[in-house]
Write a structure and sequence with these properties.
The complex is a heterodimer of chains A (325) and B (610). With 325 residues, chain A is mainly α. Chain A is 75% helix and 0% strand. Chain B is globular. The chains are: A mainly alpha (325), B alpha+beta (610). At the A-B interface, helix 1, helix 2, helix 4, helix 6 and helix 11 of A face helix 1, helix 4, strand 16, strand 20 and helix 15 of B.
Chain lengths: 325, 610
């Protein structure tokens, strides 16, 4: 048992080291790839002297290694710097937008995976029948459709043509909300939330359903299923048990999906005007806002690392063989 | 079952390593894409095909053993590389540049077009001067109705140093032009200044080191079922500070006006905001001493009268009935404080507006005198128009205003001086402003000779969408009343299907395709070549086909800026024969294949390497 905790400890240490490497990498990467951030002020008609003043204000006149050290030290203190564009701490922007993204992404992914679990096992059970063929075709269609396209079609149909859903945003302005909870605990929020949520759920559905189907088919080929059938177990019960037995690959996929979904949220946030983190990535790059870009990337990579690590650990809990191996 | 578990174990163990390897690969890929590839293009941009000697004077090259024909023709003109923004960034500019390249090829030039991200274009052209021809643009900001900034774009003073990124990367330097430019900046008599500005334009069009190919129209739309009679400003048709006084609700009274935008302010801190969009919003919250009329003329706004006493002192009397949103009167002290506050905090974004202020003197409770360091004709139209009047009693104890937190800024914004009170800003969602009933212009006012009717908007809301399509759709579903941003030509057809939407195509003074020649290099150092290249631009094709008629031929000072625009300058029409004549008159020749050569004995100039 104690070796189990040592393993977890080692895991955490490796995660921290990995994260540090990522931070270092992106710090230099952005500076190599992007031009001087005051370049954008050229089109505002500012002369080189004016821009020097701005550089000084953001500490960009310091040598690169000094900037790097203060960046890393401040980062582990929880300070991600000041956004060049918004002139406020990056952490407040990232936290605020992350919540907005999470409130739609997490429910959509969870719903998608629950449906995928049920649907996948159902399709696998009916392998070779008409219902399987038709559902697989549909799932493949959804699987190959880009998210922004799905969103635009849904918007054009439901919002522009039928006008039963709003065009975008989280609430109808103007509204008063003191905090995040107050903002979302409102019927108007639900009204704005339901369409992007449905589209996201449909979008996230395809991959796990196919995975579940494959896993289920593998399990259904096992000897003990034949035995269960032979001793007269009811069909429903067999499906249920087999589905639970085949959940592991779904879990892996779940971890990866959650980790990557935050980074890939640009498409639906832009189409549905959702005030999330994905849109900030685009804005940060267009405005050469290194601190904001770094902050978002750090948080996104952290999301990937954490979700993968959590799945790893969940595995060993669910399947004791991995703990031993 | 066994196989499966093995597979899972493998994934589980190697997850971290896989992530690390992935990131390394992505990093290397990105480095190659951005940093790695760019320098590789450098040789094709700077090195002429035939490497000439470094001597500046044209010298005959009799010693060189070139073929007989080459000897007679001189050196072939090296490849011209046109750097511009990508198709995704501005499809029209991209298509126009392609059309130009095609025409220049017909003249015998070898032309290559490179599309780069806007910031990379700036880096290459403005900072590194590493270009032959560069096409980018300058946006329409109301303060740019004053010709000063655009006219400065070819002055010697704006060349600066390499790596500094000043506004004149062409390297063009003409003492005659510089002298006239300085003169117009110092001439306070507007009629006299206009004459000099006209002369500058004539000189510019004769020399053309830089040329704007077209001005595209700005497309905007509003809900004409709910609103009528908007005031159209050049360049920014609907979303400007006058609009709440002019756009009239069909229902009568005061109504809520909702703008749709996909751009959001960066900040609403008056000592932090560095996007012009933010200032369009801030101008509703904080008044300035002067506003600009649709024809670009300064009209006294918070100031009741402006008197230019001497070239370096301006006497300003402010309106006695003007109040801050907390009910306190706006006095000369507040004006003095505001100007000095921007100077003391070295707010870089406003440096062009405050750098010439020497000091501000309070004459009496409602009168101030501003002393300038040197005479400046642009001071009234630029500085007085841009610098907002802040309440002294709110800001005077703030030590480092640009570092205020968001909450603190919002608190400070509650006490403004403009026609609208700040209510709230929910990031990436909306900004809400509310009419200030005690504003001096609430019931209408005559500002100078500009008649301003009463305020007709009870609440001003700017709703932020993810993209332009969102704004267009919201207009269709009546979620918003008007667009705050320019639309694309493709949207016109979509919107005109709805009878409750009116589409506006407003003329603009933006330089949408600002073409620069690098005059440090041959052949662009020869005036005839620059002129010939401009005669070979298919203007009609660009305007009728590429812009779909939504644009007009380019000038430096646009025709819509009628007071400063000089129509009697050298006109460049599409005329390939004239282009060839001009090139031939400068001694250029063509071989049998139609390739163009320098005059015999001419040594092309190339910029000295550092």
């Amino acid at each position: 048992m104690s070796s189990f905790f040592v393993k977890i400890l080692l895991k955490i240490i490796s995660v921290v080291i990995l994260f540090y490497i990522i931070l270092t990498f992106q710090f230099f990467l952005f500076r190599l790839a992007l031009p001087d951030p005051t370049t954008i002020f050229l089109r505002e008609g500012l002369s080189p002297e004016d821009r020097e003043l701005i550089k000084k204000m953001f500490g960009l006149d310091q040598p690169l290694h000094i900037q790097y050290i203060s960046y890393i030290v401040n980062f582990f203190k929880g300070d991600m710097g000041i956004s060049f564009l918004y002139k406020v701490p990056v952490s407040t922007i990232v936290f605020d937008r992350l919540l907005n993204t999470a409130i739609i992404l997490i429910p959509a992914i969870i719903t998608a995976f629950i449906i995928a679990w049920k649907l996948g096992s159902y399709i696998a059970w009916h392998r070779g029948k008409f219902v399987e063929k038709i559902s697989v075709v549909w799932i493949m269609i959804i699987h190959s459709a880009p998210l922004f396209w799905l969103g635009m079609i849904a918007l054009l149909f439901f919002s522009v043509q039928l006008q039963i859903f709003p065009i975008g945003g989280m609430r109808t302005p103007p509204y008063q909300a003191a905090n995040f909870l107050e903002k979302i605990l409102h019927i108007d929020f639900l009204y704005h939330w339901i369409l992007p949520y449905t589209i996201l759920t449909i979008y996230f559905l395809s991959t796990p359903t196919l995975i579940m189907r494959t896993a289920m088919i593998t399990t259904l080929g096992e000897d003990f299923i034949n035995v269960l059938e032979a001793i007269g177990h009811p069909k429903k019960k067999i499906i249920r048990d087999t589905a639970r037995y085949s959940i592991l690959p779904l879990l892996t996929q779940g971890g990866i999906t959650i980790g990557l979904a935050f980074g890939g949220s640009i498409a639906f946030e832009t189409v549905f005007s959702w005030p999330g983190i994905g849109r900030e990535i685009l804005i940060a790059f267009n405005n050469l806002d290194y601190p904001l870009a770094q902050g978002i990337f750090a948080v996104l990579s952290l999301a990937v690392i954490i979700s993968n690590t959590t799945v790893d650990m969940l595995y060993s809990y669910l399947d004791p063989r991995i703990r031993r191996g | 079952m066994v196989n499966y578990t093995k597979l899972l174990k493998g994934i589980s163990k190697s997850t971290s390593i896989a992530v690390l390897i992935g990131i390394v690969l992505v990093a290397i890929g990105a480095f190659l894409a951005f940093g790695g590839l760019a320098p590789q293009q450098t040789p094709t941009v700077t090195t002429p095909i035939e490497t000439p000697t470094e001597e500046k004077k044209p010298t005959p090259q009799k010693e060189e053993t070139t073929p007989a024909q080459e000897q007679r023709l001189g050196i072939p003109v090296q490849k011209i590389v046109i750097i511009t923004t990508t198709e995704a960034d501005d499809p029209q500019r991209w298509a126009a540049v392609q059309a130009i390249a095609e025409e220049w090829r017909k003249l015998g030039f070898e032309v290559e077009v490179i599309g780069l991200e806007p910031s990379q274009v700036d880096k290459k052209c403005y900072y590194e001067w590493d270009f032959d021809v560069c096409v980018f643009g300058w946006g329409a900001r109301i303060d740019r109705l004053d010709p000063n900034l655009f006219l400065s774009l070819i002055t010697t003073g704006e060349i600066g140093e390499k790596g500094q990124g000043a506004n004149n990367p062409t390297g063009y330097s003409n003492p005659e032009y510089d002298k006239l430019y300085e003169e117009q900046r110092r001439t306070l008599d507007i009629e006299k200044r206009r004459e000099i500005v006209f002369k500058l334009q004539e000189l510019w069009f004769e020399e053309v080191p830089r040329f704007n190919i077209y001005h595209s129209f700005v497309i905007a739309a509003y809900n004409s079922e709910k609103w009528s009679d908007p005031l159209i400003m050049p360049g920014v048709p609907l979303f400007h500070e006058w609009q709440p006084f002019f756009i009239t609700p069909k229902q009568g009274g005061m109504q809520e006006l909702i703008y749709g935008s996909h751009v959001e302010p960066d900040s609403l801190n008056p000592l932090g905001a560095t996007l012009i969009f933010s200032w369009f919003v801030l101008k509703n919250i904080y008044d300035t001493l002067v506003r600009l009329s649709p024809s670009g003329q300064p009209v006294p706004w918070l100031a009741e009268s402006i008197e230019v006493e001497s070239p370096t002192s301006i006497l300003i009397k402010i309106r006695e009935n003007a109040k801050f949103h907390d009910g306190k009167p706006i006095t000369a002290e507040d004006v003095k404080f505001s100007y000095e506050y921007f100077i003391a905090n070295e707010f870089a974004y406003f440096r062009p507006y405050w750098k010439n202020v020497d000091r501000v003197e309070v004459v009496d409770k409602y009168t101030v005198r501003i002393y300038l360091k040197e005479p400046d004709a642009t001071f009234v139209t630029n500085s007085l128009y841009m610098i907002p009047i802040l309440p002294k009693h709110v800001w005077e104890n703030v030590e480092n205003p640009s570092a205020l937190s968001e909450e603190e800024v919002f608190e400070k914004l509650k006490v403004g001086s403009g026609p609208f009170k700040f209510v709230q800003w929910v990031k990436k969602e909306f900004i809400e402003l509310e009419a200030f009933k005690e504003h001096f212009a609430f019931n209408g006012i005559t500002a100078g000779d500009f008649e301003v009717p009463n305020l007709k908007v009870s609440k001003l809301i700017i709703k932020i969408y993810g993209d332009l399509e969102g704004v267009v759709n919201a207009l269709i579903t009546k979620e918003v009343d008007a667009t705050a941003v320019g639309l694309l030509p493709g949207h016109i057809e979509t919107l005109e299907k709805y009878d409750y939407i009116t589409v506006i195509k407003a003329r603009s003074f933006a330089l949408n395709a600002d073409l620069m020649f690098n005059v440090r290099k041959s052949p662009f150092d020869i005036k005839e070549v620059r002129q010939a290249l401009l005669y070979a631009i298919p203007y009609d094709y660009i305007i009728e086909v590429i812009l779909k008629g939504l644009g007009e031929k380019g000038y430096i000072i646009a025709p819509v800026n009628s007071f400063w625009h000089n129509p009697d300058v050298r006109q460049y029409e599409y005329n390939p024969e004239k282009a060839r004549e001009l090139l031939a008159s400068a001694g250029f020749m063509w071989d049998d294949k139609g390739r163009i050569y320098y005059p015999p004995g001419f040594t092309p100039k190339k910029p000295e390497d550092p």
